[in-house]
Amino acid sequence: MTIRLVIADDHAMIRAGLRLVVENALGVEVVGEAADGVEAVAVARRERPDVLLLDIAMPRMDGLDAARMLLGDPDPPRIVMLTTFGSDANLHLALRTGVHGFLLKSSPPEHLIEAMRVAAAGDALIDPAVTLRVIASFAAQPVLAPPPELAALTARELDVLLLLARGLSNREIAAAAGVGEVTIRSHVTQILRKLGVRDRLQAVVLAYECGIVRPGGV
């Protein structure tokens, strides 16, 4: 299946570089570009992409406000946020907004392609280099009481949740646990179902908010 992608970033050179990377990947087609948040909303609504690669820091309207607007639409695109370490102060707000991933602009091309495919498939991905920095903002808040649904997790599922909190992919979790990737995918599905969350990002946020894991303790 071809993934229809819109790229939104206020730097033309970055957009060109991202386009070059994804167009060299089989199954990814760039159907539009935007140079600011207002344009990103308009292009996304016109082109109806599967995935929107959205810079968080843009003129006229930042990526966070653009994501809020689009995610309020019927059948919105999957949104993957682009960030740098100098512009991620509000990334934790994006988690609550419901975006489907975070990616550093300095990430290698294979991470970008993986993020597009994961988002298009309905899952979410967060760059491991971003995970602790973003989630630390949740951990700094008062710890919430663990939801009763947490008790439904098996010991293995709880172990998998802890590895998710480190930003590991299913493949990396499988290697760490010494099992097959299909098994881990099944565990993740059960974790999301039992916790009543949409995707792995929301599961990670819940784990930090409830104090199950803390920065530096995963």
Note the quaternary state here.
Answer: single chain
Instruction: Give me the side-by-side strand order of the main sheet.
Output: 2-1-3-4-5-6
What is the strand content? Answer: 5-15%
Classification by helices and strands? alpha/beta
Shape: globular
Low-confidence stretches: none
Radius of gyration: 17 Å
Number of helices: 10
List the helices and strands and how they pair.
Blueprint: E1 3-8, H1 12-23, E2 28-34, H2 37-47, E3 51-55, H3 63-71, E4 78-83, H4 91-97, E5 101-104, H5 109-120, E6 125-126, H6 128-139, H7 155-164, H8 170-177, H9 181-195, H10 200-209
Characteristics:
218 residues; 6 strands; alpha/beta; 6-stranded parallel beta sheet
Give me a quick take on this structure.
The protein has 218 residues and is α/β, with parallel strands linked by helices. It is 49% helix and 14% strand.
Give a written overview of the molecule.
The chain is of the alpha/beta class and 218 residues long. The chain is built from ten helices and six strands; from the N terminus they run βαβαβαβαβαβααααα. It has helices at 12-23, 37-47, 63-71, 91-97, 109-120, 128-139, 155-164, 170-177, 181-195, 200-209, and strands spanning 3-8, 28-34, 51-55, 78-83, 101-104, 125-126. Strands 2-1-3-4-5-6 form a six-stranded parallel sheet, with helices on both faces. It starts with a strand and ends in a 9-residue tail after the last helix. The model has no long low-confidence stretch (mean pLDDT 83).
